[in-house]
Write a structure and sequence with these properties.
- InterPro entries: CARBOXYPEPT_ZN_1, CARBOXYPEPT_ZN_2, FA58C, Peptidase_M14, Peptidase_M14_domain.
- This is Carboxypeptidase X1.
- This protein is α+β, with helices and mostly antiparallel strands.
- The chain has 14 helices and 30 strands.
- The strands form five sheets. Strands 1, 2, 3, 4, 5, 6, 7, 8, 9, 12, 13 and 14 form a twelve-stranded mixed sheet that branches. The protein has an eight-stranded mixed sheet with strand order 15-16-18-17-19-22-20-21, sandwiched between helices.
């Protein structure tokens, strides 16, 4: 969207260079003042749709001629600057190509200018090709990092970070900014009559925004460090804020920022906005949507889920349950927005009669949890898309990483297998929650407790956990045997998990691009953009592993983008990048076999019947109505089903290439002993097997401890409110 800024006298256009202007690439020599052109009419493309971020560092005063007093008296002007804040050029999101970034010098290739990108992460070992910043070779005032915006651009600010490294501490304390139209003649950003000095960093990770005193039009921009951490060297990661300006002489002028053809609500939604959007979708499509909550965060924010189905609120026999979970890490926000976009898209396309969407909605019960960690998201949201940093808001309010907070069932299973005389008899599914995890003093976040209860209540078949910060799809197991830092640790369904991951990765427009740049330091393209979780890095207590070992649900993790918190202007592009992937992945819930396990005499469904596929050492169980779904790749499978008190049944089921399930129903006959027990019990309830009884007992204890914790927290909250009210009354 273009906006005319011709009436803004604050806009400067570089020009009027004197003949003696330096042609050397040395910013410390060229102090020529910029020429103001108040009559120039400028059209700016892509102004920010984000809020102005509250964490900024303005330029430092340059001495007696500085404009400090004027700045204090001119708050209205500063507010206007905030409103006109431009989006990032895209160093962090990789929109800016490596070839557009130059430097005065660099220590080595791994610390070259292409590494001077906001939030870029280094490997564990310093010294490789993928280090955590641009670092100058020399420690003097003549070093600079230069960015070519390609187009004429209204520059409004610079965001700086130090070097990401386990071993080194390096950052820039203060810096200057120069601008140019040709990368030969440079003009310094001025603070009154002197060169502006901008505040940089005080630590390696916290991003600091320096706003230009006056937004200025140019093509090139340089960051020229002036002081740096005394025990370190000149290292920085940066992002540049700028709005593209129309230039009729520019061959790129006809290019516009990509916009999605889907007219969705492309912006970042805080808790209140998210609720309003979800409510608007239910009002637009009341027949196929329902909003429900599965619990609350530590700070009392509700965990809302949108259900989309032709019969919302009810499990239909034979219809699989699917879920997307986003926002487990509160600062990885793209998944949240994609899930909200997906709600709108499914609603509107269903109303339009889109046959693909109609089929999905009528044949699948879809559950969408946009924010598993709303407390963390609110923290990141307050900082804004560029200033939240790499970890701000990642954890829950209690400082818990929710992706390490589920029960570690992997090692329970592996330890039992090693100790068992016959490992084949060790349960490979529905493993109960360990006793310690159910106690009130266990370090279990309320958000995790809520999701576990949700998993127990709904017989999910397939799901995905949406993250950010990389471009790759990972699949279980996430936890390695013997606590190895990295080791391929496949499940019994490794082939199908690789299929699921490939489905998403191959249809994602960015992942599927063979020419894309790696995000940080790992080349996942060499793995076709999918990887076993343990082979990447071990994650004990992940939601994916727990889902696979404790329920019937298969689940993968999708790392959606290099940038954890993309600017709002990038959301339409990110939706287009992921739309097909989100749809085609949901459709995989219909692969494999499905059916109903029934009692031969009563014809009623049998709950908790065990479905075992030959040569697949992972069983599943039937849902309360007796229906089941077993995800499988194409092929012929010998399937055995049995239940407590019934004779087992076996048949061969064929799975074709088509994206719809093969129906394999089973009818079980009670054992003579069971018939006798039924007669003696006169219809009394048959006791469940030991594993199911233990599983149900542990769940009841977990829910009881959760209820007690919630009551305690509510009591503490009310006491705090009462004390605050008493203090206010005394003060009054």
């Amino acid at each position: 969207m273009g906006k005319s800024l011709g009436l803004l006298a604050a806009v400067l256009v570089l020009g009027g260079f004197s003949n003696d202007a330096t042609t050397e690439r040395d910013p410390s020599v060229n102090h020529t003042h910029m020429t103001v052109n108040f009559s120039e009419s400028v059209t700016v493309h892509g102004p920010s749709t984000d809020r102005a971020s509250p964490t900024t560092a303005l330029f430092l005063g340059g001495g007696g001629n500085s404009k400090e007093k004027k700045d204090k008296d001119d708050n209205k002007t500063e507010d206007k600057k905030s409103e006109l804040e431009c989006p990032p050029l895209g160093l962090e999101s990789l929109q800016v190509d490596d070839s557009q970034i130059q430097a005065s010098s660099y220590q080595r290739t791994g610390l070259g200018p292409h590494r001077g990108r906001l939030n870029i992460q280094s490997g564990i070992a310093d010294g490789d090709l993928y280090d955590g910043a641009w670092c100058a070779q020399h420690k003097n005032l003549h070093q600079w990092l230069e960015v070519d915006a390609i187009h004429m651009t209204l520059f409004t600010g610079v965001i700086l970070q130090g070097r990401n490294s386990i071993w080194s501490w390096d950052w820039v304390h203060t810096y200057k900014v120069q601008l140019s139209n040709d990368s030969v003649n440079w003009k310094s950003c001025m603070n009154g009559t002197e060169e502006a000095i901008f505040e940089g960093n005080q630590n390696p990770e916290t991003p600091v925004l320096g706003r230009l005193p006056v937004p200025t039009v140019a093509r090139f921009i340089r960051i020229n460090p002036q002081t740096w951490y005394p025990n370190g060297t000149i290292c920085l990661r940066a992002e540049i804020l700028g709005c593209r300006v129309s230039d009729p002489t520019n061959i790129y002028a006809s290019e516009q920022a990509r916009e999605s053809k889907d007219a969705l609500d492309f912006r970042h939604h805080n808790y209140k906005d998210m609720r309003m959007l979800m409510k608007s979708v239910t009002e637009e499509c009341p027949d196929i949507t329902r909003i429900y909550t599965i619990g609350k965060s530590y700070m009392g924010l509700k965990l809302y889920v949108m259900e989309i189905s032709d019969n919302p609120g009810k499990h239909e026999l034979g219809e699989p349950e699917f879920r997307y979970v986003a926002g487990m890490h509160g600062n990885e926000v793209l998944g949240r927005e994609l899930v909200l976009n997906l709600m709108q898209f499914l609603c509107r396309q269903y109303k339009k009669g889109n046959q693909r969407v109609v089929r999905l909605v009528t044949e699948t019960r879809i559950h969408l949890l946009p924010s598993m960690n709303p407390d963390g998201y609110e923290v990141a949201y307050e900082k804004g898309s560029e200033l939240a940093g790499w970890a701000e808001g990642r954890y829950s309010f209690e400082g818990i990483d929710l992706n390490h907070n589920f029960p570690d069932l992997n090692n329970i299973m592996w330890d039992t297998q090693e100790k068992a005389a016959n490992p084949a008899k060790v349960p490979n599914h529905y493993i109960p929650i360990p006793q310690y995890y159910t106690e009130e003093d266990a370090t279990v976040a309320p958000e995790t407790r809520a999701v576990i209860s949700w998993m127990q209540d709904i017989p999910f078949v397939l799901g995905a956990n949406l993250h950010g910060g990389e471009l790759v799809v990972t699949y279980p197991y996430d936890c390695t045997r013997d606590w190895a830092p990295q080791e391929n640790t496949p499940t019994a369904d490794d082939a199908f998990f690789r299929w699921l991951s490939s489905v998403y990765a191959s249809t994602n427009l960015v992942m599927a691009n063979p020419d894309r740049r790696i995000c940080h330091y790992e080349d996942f393209q060499s793995h076709n953009n999918i990887i076993n979780g343990g082979a990447w890095h071990t994650v004990p207590g992940s939601m994916n592993d727990f889902s696979y070992l404790h329920t019937n649900c298969f689940e993968v993790t999708v790392e959606l983008s290099c940038d954890k918190f993309p600017h709002a202007s990038q959301l339409p592009v990110e939706w287009d990048n992921n739309k097909e992937s989100l749809l085609v992945y949901m459709e995989q819930v219909h692969r494999g076999i499905k059916g109903v396990v029934r009692d031969k005499i009563s014809k009623k469904g049998i709950a908790d019947a065990i479905i075992k596929v030959e040569d697949h050492d992972h069983d599943i169980r039937s849902a309360p109505d007796g229906d089941y779904w077993r995800l499988l790749n194409p092929g012929d499978y010998r399937v055995m089903v049995w239940a407590l008190g019934y004779l087992p049944s076996m048949r061969t089921c064929h799975v074709g290439m088509e994206a719809h399930p093969t129906i394999c129903d089973f009818t079980l006959t009670k054992t003579p002993m069971q018939v006798l027990k039924d007669i003696r019990a006169k219809g009394g309830k048959i006791p469940q097997d030991l594993q199911l009884r233990l599983r149900a007992l542990r769940l009841r204890k977990l829910r009881a401890s959760t209820k007690a914790l919630n009551q305690r927290r509510e009591s503490q909250r009310l006491q705090r409110l009462q004390r605050r009210g008493a203090r206010d009354a005394r003060g009054g």
